[in-house]
Write a structure and sequence with these properties.
The protein is mainly alpha-helical. It is built from 15 helices and no strands. Helix 5 packs across helix 12. It is found in: Cell membrane.
Length: about 280
């Protein structure tokens, strides 16, 4: 065995025990993280007596699939899904385009006060979102956008977080490629969409997923800016479902919760390799 043998650390005294301890810690962390999710999914298939049973039933003995249909019929979930889909997709697309343009300008365009403006944007990230609720609502109300998709989407179109992530990533791009595009006569928009965007795909997908999940799970703003059931989004729709069920059918309420989080989980599992690549890209530079 040489010093360069990759298996050398595991053959040292205590190496195997250290690895087993690390695996045990990872299993414990995974159990803590996945435990509530499993309890939610299993309870969505339980009857009320099984949900309230003590000691708890970890595996439902009588699968109650009707909880999902009860939840769907107790509230207009088709409309809730449509509203959340429109707000998430349209809002994410506009916010991502805005973040891309701003990040490109901060990295590749010279203009006076660029560093100070970027520091100002970083300062805006430190302001709690609840501080802007009243000004945003007054603005939306004056525009007549209460109970509309425009009112749900408009206040979240500026993405300081997305601009920051994309700017930090674009700083790691090779200058030679940018110089070659400039020599070929490419303008800024062509450089952005033909050169920068393909090299930044993992980070762009990461930002898009973070923004989409944030909009999909948003509760406070849709609750404030909407007052009719046909404009509610899914998180607010769960509150509506709970009021409809009056705390009687927790199986249906938990089934509705599963229907809300399932699309986000599917998107995450499909795009998780892009997220990992986006968060680790440039780490070795």
């Amino acid at each position: 065995m040489t010093a360069l043998d990759p298996a050398a650390p595991s053959r040292r005294p205590g190496g195997r025990a250290r690895r087993l301890g690390l695996y045990a810690l990872l299993v414990l962390v995974a159990f803590i993280a996945a435990g509530p999710l499993y309890w939610l999914a299993s309870s969505a298939l339980k009857t009320n007596p099984q949900i309230y049973a003590y000691p708890p039933h970890w595996v439902p003995t009588d699968l109650r699939w009707s909880n999902f249909s009860d939840a769907w019929n107790a509230a207009p979930f088709d409309r809730f899904f449509l509203n959340s889909l429109v707000v998430s997709v349209v809002g994410t697309a506009i916010e991502l385009c805005s973040a891309l343009l701003c990040a490109y300008a901060f990295v590749f365009l010279p203009f006076p006060g660029k560093k100070w403006l970027f520091l100002f944007l970083l300062g805006a990230m430190m302001v709690p979102g609840h501080v802007t609720l009243l000004p945003n609502f007054l603005t939306v109300a004056q525009l007549g956008w209460v109970n509309t998709w425009a009112g749900l989407i408009a206040p979240g179109l500026g993405s300081v977080f997305g601009t920051f992530l994309l700017r930090q990533h674009m700083l790691t791009l090779p200058k030679e490629v940018m110089d070659a595009a400039r020599i070929d006569g490419a303008g800024h928009l062509r450089t952005l969409f033909r050169v920068v965007l393909p090299m930044s795909r993992p980070m762009v997908i990461t930002v898009a997923i973070v923004v989409m999940v944030t909009k999909w799970n948003d509760f406070i703003w849709p609750l404030i800016v909407t007052s009719s059931a046909d404009m509610r989004t899914l998180p607010v729709g769960l509150l509506f479902l709970r009021d409809q069920e009056t705390y009687a059918n927790w199986g249906a309420i938990l089934a509705g919760t599963v229907m809300v989080i399932l699309p986000v989980l599917v998107v995450f599992f499909i795009a998780q390799r892009y997220i990992i690549a986006g968060l680790t890209q440039g780490a070795g530079k």
